[in-house]
C-alpha cells in the first residue's frame, strides 16, 4: 500500500477513535496527505529512506511551520508558528508524514495531562484514568494506535511517565543529544526531546532521525550520532544492573515493586548480574526540581507578554494592564503557580536559601549517579510509584501530583538518559520499567530494552 493509503487509514482512525481519548489538539489532514503524496513519488523513484512515507505525530510543544503550536495553552491558542523546530525539520527531511499535534499539560507542566487548555487526555487502557503527563497525548495516541510513533519532551519525566502509564516505550536522551531549537522552553537546563513508540527498535529508528548537533541550540552536544539500531541484538551476558534501594521503598505500590523485581529476574536469565546500589539523595530530587524547574520557567515564560504574539487581552487601558490581563487570562492555574514559585525562589533575599540550595542538591544527585554508574552498566527500577490514577484524583493537590515524579526527576537534574518500557500490568493498568544509563549510553539502553521485549 502507498503512504497516502496508510496516512488516510490513520487519519480515519483518529477521527473515529480520538473522541474517546482527546489525544490530538490538531489533526493536520492536508499537510499529512501532501507529505504522503510527496513520499509516494520518492518511493516510486526508488529514493526512499527508512522514514519515507511513515506517519508520526508531534507533541504540541514542537513548533511546526504554518500549523498552530499551542503548548496546550490559551496563551498560544492563536499561534501559528512561522518556523519548524529542528526535530520537526529532521522528520520532514526524512520523509515522515505529520498526522497532527498531540495533547499535553499546559507548557509541559504536569504529570497527568489535566492542565491542558483543550481538556484532559484520557488513558486508552481505562478512560477514567489519566494517561500521565506532560506528553500524555503522544503516549495515548501511540497506545491507541492512532499513530505508529510520536515525539515527546521530558523535563522531569514527561516522556517516561506517560509511556509507563500507557504501556508504551519512551526514551529521554542525554541532555543535549536532541536539539531544543523550536521546542517551546519550560526549564532549559532540563528539557530534552525524545521518541515515544511501541518498541525499543522503533525508538532507535526515531532517535537516528532526532539526535545530532544543532548550532541553533547552544547546549546541543557536538558529537557523532551512532546508528542506534546497531547494538539492539547484542547479548546481555555480563551486563551489570544496579537496583537503587531508594526506588523500592517509601510510598510505592507493592505490585509495581514485585513486577519490577520479576522483570529483573528475567534479565538475570539473560546473563545479567544484579546488585543493590544506593542513590541516597533521591527524595531530595522533588524539592530541588520543584525549585529549579519553576525558576527557569518563570524566566522563560516572561516572553509571553501579549505584545509580540500569543494571547492579548481586550481593550487594555495601558501597557501594565496589557501585561497583567494578557498573562492573567492567558495562563492556567498550574502555570501561574510555577511562575509565582519560580519568581519567589529567584528573588533577592531568597535566592541563596532556595535556588542555590537546589543547585547544590542537584550536584549531589549527579555525583550519586556518577558513583553508581562507575560500578554498574545500567540502573533499573520502576518508572512510577503507582499505576495511572483517576482523572481528578490529584488535580486539586499539587504536592500529591509532584510526588508521582519521584523516580523520574533525578535523571533530568543529572542530565542522564533514561527509558521506560512496558513491564506488565497492575489491576489492569500498565506499568513501566525504567532503565537508566551513563551519559550518551542510549545505544546500551536500547539494547537492554530490545532484549527484554
Ligand atoms: N511532572 C513534571 C512537572 O510537572 C515533569 C514535567 C515534564 O517533564 N515536562 O514539572
Automatic annotation (TrEMBL):
Gene3D superfamilies: Amidase signature (AS) domain. The keyword ATP-binding applies. It is an enzyme of class 6 (ligase). SUPFAM superfamilies: Amidase signature (AS) enzymes. Residues 5-446 form the Amidase domain. Pfam families: Amidase (PF01425). InterPro entries: Amidase, Amidase_CS, Amidase_dom, AS_sf, GatA. It catalyses: L-glutamyl-tRNA(Gln) + L-glutamine + ATP + H2O = L-glutaminyl-tRNA(Gln) + L-glutamate + ADP + phosphate + H(+). Keywords: ATP-binding, Ligase, Nucleotide-binding, Protein biosynthesis. The active site is at residues 59, 134, 158. Its EC number is 6.3.5.7. It comes from the Bacteria. Heterotrimer of A, B and C subunits. Belongs to the amidase family. GatA subfamily. PANTHER family: GLUTAMYL-TRNA(GLN) AMIDOTRANSFERASE SUBUNIT A, TRANSAMIDASE. Allows the formation of correctly charged Gln-tRNA(Gln) through the transamidation of misacylated Glu-tRNA(Gln) in organisms which lack glutaminyl-tRNA synthetase. The reaction takes place in the presence of glutamine and ATP through an activated gamma-phospho-Glu-tRNA(Gln). This is Glutamyl-tRNA(Gln) amidotransferase subunit A. It comes from Neptuniibacter pectenicola. The lineage of its organism: Bacteria, Pseudomonadati, Pseudomonadota, Gammaproteobacteria, Oceanospirillales.
Amino acid at each position: 500500500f502507498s503512504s497516502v493509503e496508510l496516512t488516510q487509514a490513520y487519519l480515519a482512525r483518529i477521527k473515529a477513535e480520538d473522541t474517546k481519548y482527546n489525544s490530538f489538539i490538531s489533526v493536520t489532514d492536508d499537510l499529512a496527505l501532501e507529505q504522503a503524496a510527496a513520499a509516494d513519488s520518492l518511493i516510486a523513484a526508488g529514493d526512499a529512506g527508512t522514514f519515507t512515507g511513515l506517519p508520526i505525530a508531534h507533541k504540541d510543544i514542537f513548533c511546526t511551520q504554518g500549523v498552530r503550536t499551542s503548548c496546550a495553552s490559551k496563551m498560544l491558542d492563536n499561534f501559528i508558528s512561522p518556523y519548524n523546530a529542528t526535530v520537526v525539520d529532521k522528520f520532514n527531511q526524512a520523509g515522515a508524514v505529520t498526522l497532527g499535534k498531540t495533547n499535553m499539560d499546559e507548557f509541559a507542566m504536569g504529570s497527568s495531562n489535566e492542565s491542558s487548555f483543550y481538556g484532559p487526555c484520557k488513558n486508552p487502557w481505562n478512560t477514567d484514568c489519566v494517561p500521565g503527563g506532560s506528553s500524555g497525548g503522544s503516549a495515548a495516541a501511540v497506545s491507541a494506535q492512532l499513530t505508529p510513533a510520536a515525539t515527546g519532551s521530558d523535563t522531569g519525566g514527561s516522556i517516561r511517565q506517560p509511556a509507563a502509564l500507557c504501556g508504551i516505550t519512551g526514551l529521554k536522551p542525554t541532555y543535549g543529544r536532541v536539539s531544543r531549537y523550536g521546542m517551546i522552553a519550560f526549564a532549559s537546563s532540563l528539557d530534552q526531546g525524545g521518541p515515544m513508540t511501541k518498541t525499543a527498535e522503533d525508538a532507535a529508528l526515531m532517535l537516528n532521525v532526532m539526535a545530532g548537533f544543532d548550532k541553533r541550540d547552544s547546549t546541543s552536544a557536538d558529537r557523532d550520532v551512532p546508528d542506534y539500531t546497531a547494538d539492539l541484538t547484542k547479548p546481555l551476558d555480563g551486563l551489570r544492573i544496579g537496583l537503587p534501594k531508594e526506588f523500592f521503598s517509601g510510598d510505592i505500590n507493592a505490585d509495581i515493586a514485585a513486577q519490577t523485581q520479576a522483570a529483573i529476574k528475567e534479565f538475570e536469565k539473560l546473563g545479567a548480574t544484579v546488585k543493590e546500589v544506593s542513590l541516597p539523595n533521591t527524595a531530595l530530587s522533588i524539592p530541588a526540581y520543584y525549585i529549579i524547574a519553576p525558576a527557569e520557567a518563570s524566566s522563560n515564560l516572561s516572553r509571553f507578554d501579549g505584545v509580540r504574539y500569543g494571547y492579548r487581552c481586550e481593550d487594555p487601558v495601558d501597557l501594565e494592564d496589557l501585561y497583567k490581563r494578557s498573562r492573567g487570562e492567558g495562563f492556567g492555574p498550574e502555570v501561574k503557580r510555577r511562575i509565582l514559585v519560580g519568581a519567589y525562589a529567584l528573588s533577592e533575599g531568597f535566592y541563596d536559601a532556595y535556588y542555590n540550595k537546589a543547585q547544590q542538591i542537584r550536584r549531589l544527585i549527579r555525583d550519586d549517579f556518577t558513583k553508581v554508574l562507575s560500578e554498574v552498566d545500567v540502573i533499573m527500577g520502576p518508572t512510577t510509584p503507582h499505576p495511572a490514577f483517576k482523572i481528578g484524583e490529584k488535580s486539586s493537590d499539587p504536592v500529591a501530583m509532584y510526588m508521582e515524579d519521584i523516580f523520574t526527576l533525578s535523571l533530568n537534574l543529572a542530565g542522564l538518559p533514561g527509558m521506560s518500557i512496558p513491564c506488565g500490568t497492575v489491576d489492569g493498568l500498565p506499568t513501566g520499567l525504567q532503565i537508566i544509563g551513563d551519559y550518551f549510553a542510549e545505544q546500551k539502553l536500547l539494547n537492554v530494552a530490545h532484549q527484554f521485549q
